[in-house]
């Protein structure tokens, strides 16, 4: 079976490890370049993208992660993880960098400052109806070539796929429903 890493520098790592294991995957936290080298795919969790950006550089994971993704390693980012996978961000910190790889422009904290979090049911392609939990979430403002929109909320894409890269604005890892993770696991065997 494929071994899936969860980037473990910050964010809701434990929830993703649990969801991946429920989806039948072999999952392990990734904190060091050596650990990244041992996984076949990676999940970038929710959390705080500016902090993760800083820690990725401190832990010397930014360049190896970019190289692996450029090389075709499957990746799934939720919320802050979606921001990390985006080629371009709006309303980011002035010095904020991303890992990139997905031809999307995301707007950070897009749902408005007064609405810190909300939940809704969404239809997601290849998954079905999902309970989507948004916590200071980004949305996708623009999509480039080869980006498929899997779900929308407030008139914006909130789940997107490009080849073997997947990103959601919401946090399926906090709902106890592992179908989005199962879909990512299925993407590895294509
Ligand atoms: N607002 C956070 C950021 O910009 C993301 C929030 C989350 O992951 N729940 O990184």
CATH architecture descriptor name: 3-Layer(aba) Sandwich
- In DSSP terms (H or I, runs of 4 or more residues), the helix count works out at 6
CATH level-1 class: Alpha Beta
Ligands, deduplicated: glutamine
N-to-C SSE string, H for helix and E for strand: EHEHEHHEHEEEEEEEEH
Q: Give the strand order, joined by hyphens, for the main sheet.
A: 2-1-3-4-12-11-10
Would you tell me the overall average pLDDT? 96
> What is the number of domains?
1
CATH topology: Rossmann fold
Rounded to the nearest angstrom, the radius of gyration is: 15 Å
Structural class: alpha/beta
Which homologous superfamily in CATH is the superfamily? Class I glutamine amidotransferase (GATase) domain
Sheet with most strands: 7 strands, mixed
Low-confidence stretches: none
Q: First CA to last CA: what distance? A: 13 Å
Number of strands: 12
GO biological process, one term: pyridoxal phosphate biosynthetic process
InterPro entries: Class_I_gatase-like (IPR029062), PdxT/SNO (IPR002161), PdxT/SNO_CS (IPR021196)
Keywords: Glutamine amidotransferase, Hydrolase, Lyase, Pyridoxal phosphate
EC number: 4.3.3.6, 3.5.1.2
Features:
190 residues, alpha/beta, Rossmann fold, 7-stranded mixed beta sheet, 3-stranded mixed beta sheet, 6 helices, globular, binds glutamine, PdxT/SNO, EC 3.5.1.2, Class_I_gatase-like, lyase
Structural notes for this entry:
This is Pyridoxal 5'-phosphate synthase subunit PdxT. Catalyzes the hydrolysis of glutamine to glutamate and ammonia as part of the biosynthesis of pyridoxal 5'-phosphate. The resulting ammonia molecule is channeled to the active site of PdxS. Pathway: Cofactor biosynthesis; pyridoxal 5'-phosphate biosynthesis. It catalyses: aldehydo-D-ribose 5-phosphate + D-glyceraldehyde 3-phosphate + L-glutamine = pyridoxal 5'-phosphate + L-glutamate + phosphate + 3 H2O + H(+); L-glutamine + H2O = L-glutamate + NH4(+). The protein is an alpha/beta fold and 190 residues long. Helices cover 26% and strands 35% of the residues. It is built from 6 helices and 12 strands. A hairpin with a 3-residue loop joins strand 7 (117-124) and strand 8 (128-135). It is globular. The mean pLDDT is 96.
């Amino acid at each position: 079976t494929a071994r899936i890493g969860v980037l473990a520098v910050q964010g809701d790592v434990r929830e993703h490890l649990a969801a991946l294991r429920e989806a039948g995957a072999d999952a392990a936290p990734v904190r060091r370049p050596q650990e990244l080298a041992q996984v076949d795919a990676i999940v970038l969790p929710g959390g705080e993208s500016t902090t993760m950006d800083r820690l990725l550089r401190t832990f010397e994971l930014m360049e190896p992660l970019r190289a692996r993704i450029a090389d075709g390693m499957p990746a799934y980012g939720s919320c802050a993880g979606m921001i990390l996978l985006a080629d371009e961000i709006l309303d980011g910190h002035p010095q904020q960098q991303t890992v990139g790889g997905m031809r999307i422009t995301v707007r950070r904290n897009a749902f408005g400052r007064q609405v810190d979090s909300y939940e809704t049911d969404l239809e997601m392609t290849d998954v079905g109806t999902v309970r989507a939990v948004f916590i200071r979430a980004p949305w996708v403002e623009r999509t480039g070539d080869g980006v498929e929109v899997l779900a929308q909320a407030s008139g914006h894409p909130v789940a997107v796929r490009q080849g073997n890269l997947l990103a959601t604005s919401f946090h399926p890892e906090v709902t106890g429903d592992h179908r989005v993770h199962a879909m990512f696991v299925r993407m590895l065997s294509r």
